[in-house]
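User: Can you help me understand a structure? I only have the sequence.
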Amino acid sequence: MWWAGVAWRGGDYEVAVVDAGGTPTVPATGFAGRQVPALVALLRDAATRSGDGVATVIDSSTGMIDGHLLAAGIPVYRADPPLLPARPPFASVPAADLARCGATNTAALHRLTIESGALAGRAEQYLEHLAASGPVERELTATGRYLTRGAGTVPQLALTFDDGPHPVFTPQVLELLRRYDVRATFFCVGLNVAAYPHLVGQIADAGHQLGNHTWSHPYLPDLTRGELLGQVDATDAALRAAGTATTLVRPPYGARTPDSLTWLAGHGYTTVLWDIDVGDWAAPGTEAIVAGATTATAGSVILMHDAGGDRTGTVAALPRILGRLLDRGYRFVTVDQLTREE
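Assistant: Let's start by predicting it. Here is the structure, written out as tokens:
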């Protein structure tokens, strides 16, 4: 089997491929953020040439490409920091280093699936970080810098979409929201904002709110303060270049530590999480997505996704979710409206 490293640098992706012995077979090749289909095509060609398939390796700062690769049937593994050299400024570990890590340290990698998401093998650490963050969350909630849901005193909900914009799924979501006259909040990834700024403009023009979802969808506990703030600052700059701005931030995977929450608040951001996760990131099927969303109660913040993988199920579920919750008398508002009107 050949091994491909998939990395990011600034607004671009990078792929390099080695054989089972670590010898390069495809040199480091760059792709613009909007060229994910071409990146997938290169990997499929490499799989054919190898005669035994190709597996990809990402690091924990690269959380935007794994869903697309898995949806295309390409195996994805994650290499964690102890296995890798230091990341360059505003980039992941280079693709060639990731590919070599796959060939030489296969047993130490974590295999990802659509169902497990990008945090396979880190559940215990993830939960430890969440538990440790509790005191800081309570402090920030008291100052309005941390939110999981509204007060629930009026029948309104905040529908939120993560990981976009996406050239196929975001327009479909926007059309459904328009049809039902519903407002939502979109937490966008900087790589995708830079690739599709016109879609950010369409989101804002339709009356929806924008939020910051970092630049490359990293696992925040693995980042230094400078790396974390660099991620949100770059995304903020991309959103501003697209004609909008925000002080809302959502940590990828909801992963946080006391330090990361403090750093974000000190940088002027309000961290927005959720109380209803419909699980559409795991592609559980339309029925499961509808069932999850319709457990919402007054004040709920509902987490959904308009990018990061195949979101066909999300789009199919959305009309039923909107129809049922509207029929129950709920009004959909942006996150800002949820906090302001309660």
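Now, to help you interpret it: The two ends are 56 Å apart (CA to CA). The first helix runs from residue 36 to 50. Let me know which part you'd like to focus on.
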